[in-house]
Amino acid sequence: xxxxxxxxxxxxxxxxxxxxxxxxxxxxxxxxxxxxxxxxxxxxxxxxxxxxxxxxxxxxxxxxxxxxxxxxxxxxxxxxxxxxxxxxxxxxxxxxxxxxxxxxxxxxxxxxxxxxxxxxxxxxxxxxxxxxxxxxxxxxxxxxxxxxxxxxxxxxxxxxxxxxxxxxxxxxxxxxxxxxxxxxxxxxxxxxxxxxxxxxxxxxxxxxxxxxxxxxxxxxxxxxxxxxxxxxxxxxxxxxxxxxxxxxxxxxxxxxxxxxxxxxxxxxxxxxxxxxxxxxxxxxxxxxxxxxxxxxxxxxxxxxxxxxxxxxxxxxxxxxxxxxxxxxxxxxxxxxxxxxxxxxxxxxxxxxxxxxxxxxxxxxxxxxxxxxxxxxxxxxxxxxxxxxxxxxxxxxxxxxxxxxxxxxxxxxxxxxxxxxxxxxxxxxxxxxxxxxxxxxxxxxxxxxxxxxxxxxxxxxxxxxxxxxxxxxxxxxxxxxxxxxxxxxxxxxxxxxxxxxxxxxxxxxxxxxxxxxxxxxxxxxxxxxxxxxxxxxxxxxxxxxxxxxxxxxxxxxxxxxxxxxxxxxxxxxxxxxxxxxxxxxxxxxxxxxxxxxxxxxxxxxxxxxxxxxxxxxxxxxxxxxxxxxxxxxxxxxx
Length: 637
Hints:
Layout: E1 4-8, E2 52-58, E3 66-69, H1 76-93, E4 99-101, E5 112-115, H2 119-123, H3 130-133, E6 138-143, E7 146-151, H4 154-169, E8 172-175, E9 178-183, E10 188-191, E11 194-197, E12 203-207, H5 209-212, H6 215-220, H7 226-229, H8 241-245, H9 250-256, H10 270-287, E13 293-296, H11 308-317, H12 321-342, E14 349-354, E15 363-365, E16 371-373, E17 384-388, H13 407-417, E18 423-428, H14 443-455, E19 458-464, H15 476-488, H16 494-506, H17 510-531, H18 546-563, H19 566-569, H20 571-595, H21 602-619, E20 623-625, E21 628-629
């Protein structure tokens, strides 16, 4: 039977057959990660073709295969890997795969898919090596009729399941209810797997409302939630220093808090504050056995302690980060010593912010170029990493980090790399502290920025969007997909990824929406060249003239027309596609109302605003800006 590739919108929406060109390579394959000496460079993503074996994975609508998991080692993520394999294998073939533990598998059973660290994996002498694979990488190996999917962590194993499905059934995930998958599969040979896949950047966190609120969505994008990585302390995982300090005596407060009360003091009593913090961190690590990092982040303000001790450190090193680092190093030593005693083998990374008052590292220029620590006291311990949050990048999202507009943040990142260990990076893919409906064209810069970060040793990257907006306008769902894919392979074919997403996500409206997207990017390239565009200066007619907004809204109207037949033939699909188009209409409509209000009568202005508010509410777009809700506030000020 001929296989039918489908893009499926699940839930109440029916299946729609759509031919989707899906790139087969999901990541950078180990051994093929050689990077260019200069940037930018785009390595075309070539499909990886695996040969068929003579082994039947599916024959005449039946399968003799089962899933094998380790007995007594079930974790939430390994259970997720098993359920995802069962779900999508079943949807592709109609077959419900049984799962058994490795201790009950019979010696003669060879038709199985082993997940994680099973006895059968160990019998082959294989294991996931963290130094090779990181937390997210994995291997897929075939031995005879058996298949083994395993990583150095259960996250790697789960991500490996998706690649197995991709090769066997052309699975590709785009959005919560949109993915491609061959269905009605009655016959399929097992492929000859011998793969090792390692992402360009080990871990990605998409700080975008829809992804934050749905861990399944995050994991299917092969990204992490903040809970997967960082220990929660108090109500935060980021600006945690005061929460880690917790209750203090008056004597401790006098030593450990700045005179203004706005920041900790990391200088006056370094031994005391580091011991106190380490003990409180350990209390959290005893409760949460899955996280791999703890951030000791200063309060979210530009202040720093100005006591004599902190001032002396500032004068010596030229930056506030030196005293911060010295204390963090001590905390890391003490936490690891307690872990070695209580939880042997567990490793935790202690991170700290390069942010505002601590954005600059304590380094000096080396003879012949490059940087080095000012002295060994400020070299980071092996279990310490900087969480580099160069907030100035948010003003120039259109430009990559390697562009002159971002020379300050780029130079700071290069300097921080000189202190040793891999960096954790906090970057931006959308407007988050300005008006949420102001478009932020980050597509131009994302790939080259991620290439630069991979080159400079980034282990974890956060892409911050509108994190507190349940649903975000301005191509946010495409940004989530693209950011996730490019972090896995920073040399992937970005244009193909974009086109595939738009085809799958918008269905028959794809041509019109592709036109809108291409015009959107072309216009931003123009204003970047002619007007030195930044995100903070865009609510002006020079940036968004009438003809540009009218052209974009014309493409939106064409998209609505393209889905019109579904209104009677398939109302559920019509509603789903309509809402997707409607979401992308919000930014140009808002700009039209904000910049050219006098083009409309007062009655039309009122009607347009009421419709806009209603559309936002129905779509789940709740925020006007980082700290202002749409409901109860004026749209324009």
